[in-house]
Amino acid sequence: MIAYIDEKKDRFGVEPICAHLPIAPATYHDRKRRPPSRRALRDAELEAEIRRVFDDNFGVYGARKVWRQLRREGHPVARCTVERLMRKMSLAGAVRGKTRRTTIPDDAAPRPADLVDRDFSATRPNQLWVADLTYVATWSGFV
Question: Quick one: what percent of the chain has pLDDT higher than 90?
Fold first, then answer.
């Protein structure tokens, strides 16, 4: 919300925007005056290191290998932190093997009718019942 207010405040002003959002103007101003947290500072430092390790290894390292390389270089960091930051930076390692397409839908087959027209709101209990008949099976055999 802070980023949204920053983006629109020149056009509308902070107070009118906050009147339509669940945030008080004082909260916005307090957040803007507050210095970055230790975690934010550490994340910024680690993001540069993660990007460097990822790029040095041709963009194929995943979170586990990036984490191990950082530890070898003397950066004590938790693996979950590397995973979180790589997700935030949209970095993903290479995946071995081919992906398997298990279901190929028949485009000519009739589809069931959408009886609720994608409107899943109900005004009272037991008015609308929705079920998901999708079954996802995991394959754990040898490939």
Answer: 64
DSSP conformation class of 13 = -
* Assigned domain for 45 exists: yes
Query: With contact defined as beta carbons under 8 Å apart, do 76 and 46 qualify?
Result: no
Angle between helical axes of 79-88 and 38-56 (0-180°, round to 10): 80
100 domain-assigned? no
Summarised one tens digit per residue, pLDDT across range 25-74 is: 999 999 999 999 999 999 999 999 999 999 999 999 999 999 999 999 99
What secondary structure does DSSP assign to 88-140, as a single string? Answer: HTT------SPPP------TTSPPPP-TTTT----SSTTS-------------
Residue 16 sits in which domain range?
2-33
Residues 6 or more apart in contact with residue 101 via CB below 8 angstroms: none
Query: What is the identity of the amino acid at 61?
Result: Y
